[in-house]
Amino acid sequence: MPSALAIPSHDSTAEDYWYLLKPRVMSLVVFTGIAGLLLAPGFIHPFIGLTAILCLAVGSGAAGAINMWYERDIDALMGRTKGRPLPQGKIQPGEALGFGLTLAIGSVIVMYTLVNFWAAFYLMTAILFYVFVYTIWLKRRTPQNIVIGGAAGALPPVIGWAAVMNETSLFPWILFGIIFLWTPPHFWALALCKHQDYQRANIPMLPTVVGAEKTKNHILGYILVLIGLTLFPVYQGYLGLFYGGAAFVLGLVFLGFGIRLKFSSNPTYGMRVFFYSIFYLFLLFTAMIIDKRGYYDLF
User: Fold this and answer.
1) 179 Cβ contact partners less than 8 Å away, ≥ 6 residues apart
2) How do residues 26-60 score in pLDDT, each as one tens digit?
3) Cα(187)–Cα(161) distance, integer angstroms
4) Over 70: is that where the pLDDT of 2 sits?
């Protein structure tokens, strides 16, 4: 367990607690959760749907807060994270942990009470997996941390689907698989640019363990498998040609970025891949929603 940092305390603000929730990560979690909810074939009352998404957002933020509490020592060593509230002493460790635990427990209880059992179960699983499997067990021990740990971030569409259906089928687990395969190239592209940070903090991210060239090969391999899986819903008849065309084009562009990264000597090119991967996931799930709901008929 990391020890408390010897940094003077300052008055906390609402903005400090907001950043403790990792709002940028939360935004992707919420969006893919909404996608799962909209892609489910059943009906959900708008109030219940909004409650489910709110619980998902709060649960995601809670996991982020507990993650920041546990990783406050290594966050202080990394340029990308040293400005977070805990390394800066703006929030005390005990306050961050209590805040995260309260939100985590509350989000699961509300999800169970107002939505349904399975949505609450998968939300609880995502929180526990992110905290105990990724943050505490894997992060400091293996370069596969982001591969295995990525399962937590891949669960939101399953949670959204379960909120509507109170069960799951193959399709939401395909969405899970897409995010699961997307996560490694997304984070490894960032790690290529920030490898010195990870070395300083003694975190075994793939570039610091196997080197940049092998990491680039891994990124390309995951992108290729990802493209195949994104087309699988069309083959199975879950989605139509509108989505299929979008997935194919977006995947080819992603592959192009990966190939360019492979042969680029520019150490900062990984950030382009990183930012495109966010754009890619957003457009991919948007295309799913448009295709499934028939919104393209409006154009």
Assistant:
1) 32, 150, 153, 154, 156, 157, 281
2) 999 999 999 999 999 999 999 999 999 999 999 99
3) 26
4) no
* Average pLDDT of the segment spanning 228-245: 95
CA-CA distance, 32 to 152, in Å (whole number)? Answer: 13
pLDDT of residue 267: 74
Report field, pTM of the whole predicted structure over 0.90 = yes
Give the C-alpha separation, 283 to 194, whole Å: 26
CATH number of 169-299: 1.20.120
Amino acid in position 53: I
Residue 193 vs residues 35, 113, 117, 152: alpha-carbon distances, Å: 31, 44, 42, 24
Cβ(36)–Cβ(159) under 8 Å? yes
Looking at domain 12-168, its CATH class is: mainly alpha
Q: Which amino acid is at 139?
A: K
Residue closest to 217 by CA, chosen among 248, 175, 263, 251: 263
Residue 120 CA to residue 283 CA, distance in Å, equals 27
Return d(Cα 255, Cα 261) in angstroms, integer: 10
Residue 207 structure tokens: 């570039």
> Domains of the chain: which residue ranges?
12-168, 169-299
How many angstroms separate the CA atoms of 137 and 204, rounded? 13
DSSP structure class, residue 134: I
Residue 58's contacts (CB-CB under 8 Å, 6 or more residues apart) are 103, 106, 107
CB atoms within 10 A of CB 169: 12
pLDDT at 258: 97
DSSP state of 133: I
Report helix angle 46-70 to 23-39, nearest 10.
Answer: 150
Q: What does the pLDDT look like over 268-285, one tens digit per residue?
A: 899 999 999 999 999 999
